[in-house]
Design a protein that fits this description.
It is a single chain. By secondary structure, the chain is an alpha+beta fold. The chain has two domains: about 60 residues; about 180 residues, no CATH class. About 30% of the residues lie in helices and about 40% in strands. It is built from two helices and 14 strands. The strands form three sheets. Strands 6, 7, 8, 9, 10 and 13 form a six-stranded antiparallel beta sheet that branches. Strands 1-2-3-4-5 form a five-stranded antiparallel beta sheet, with no helix packed on it. The longest helix has about 60 residues. The protein is globular, with a radius of gyration of 33 Å.
């Protein structure tokens, strides 16, 4: 009887030990699985992040792009009031493009619009390009105005040097007729342009203007430049009256 009791006790103890061992093994297996899953997820996240950063850097060549910064160093000189600006970094170093307008001088019928591109390398600020357009001796209504939100910075040919483009409208008129419109685009110091008229649609009367003249400078530019310029032109060219 005593022998049977001892054998039974050993059997019960063996079952308990096996149960504990199985529980511990299951817990360890679950822990290892969770750890491996976490590591796989982290690796996937890191890989995606790296690919995203590389993709952004490789495709644009532009870093730290900010529009309407409102912060200019003392070395940046300009005339008029800033109506748009953008800053970024590329192979030229630190860059800033600003568009400005002067108020109308009523007595002389005069107004100006300016564009500037400044670069900064190792603390040295340089004016890369400057444009200036104006209307003078206009006895009627003057329009010389940057088209809002049209300043855009790109790297269409992925060479690490950004392009800038913007549009503005201008006229001297006392009637309802299409304004002239210009698109200016730069890569470095090289300028490209489209000139023409806005497409004016007057309700109940018809459509006027819409002419677009592409500057020969685009002949030597990458195809992407002209495609982009046409898209931007078409985005802003239409004006409707009476709708």
């Amino acid at each position: 009887m005593k022998i049977i009791t001892i054998v039974f006790s050993v059997f019960i103890l063996s079952l308990a030990c096996n149960k504990d061992r199985g529980t511990n093994q299951n817990a360890e297996t679950q822990k290892d699985t969770a750890t491996q899953t976490k590591q796989n997820m982290q690796a996937t996240t890191n890989s995606a992040s790296t690919m995203q950063e590389a993709d952004s850097s490789d495709k644009t060549g532009i870093e730290n792009l900010v529009y309407d910064t409102g912060k200019l160093s003392d070395e940046i000189k300009y005339s008029g009031k800033i109506v748009a600006d953008a800053s970024w970094n590329d192979k030229n170093g630190e860059n800033m493009v600003i568009i400005t307008e002067t108020p109308v001088k009523e007595l002389s019928g005069y107004k100006e619009l300016f564009g500037y591109h400044y670069t900064n390398n190792n603390g040295e600020t340089k004016l890369l390009w400057k444009i200036n357009d104006f209307i003078e001796e206009c006895p009627v209504d003057i329009t010389l105005k940057y088209i809002e939100n049209s300043l855009i910075i790109t790297d269409l040919n992925n060479n690490g040097i950004a392009e800038s483009s913007f549009l503005y409208r201008m006229s001297c008129k006392g009637d309802v007729s299409p304004d002239d419109m210009k698109l200016l685009m730069h890569e470095g110091e090289t300028k490209y342009a489209i000139r023409g008229q806005m497409k004016l649609t007057i309700k109940g009367e018809g459509t006027y203007g819409g002419e677009m003249k592409i500057d020969p400078s685009f002949d030597k530019a990458p195809k992407e430049f002209l495609d982009h310029a046409k898209d931007e032109w078409n985005k802003y060219r239409e004006e409707k009256v009476g709708y």
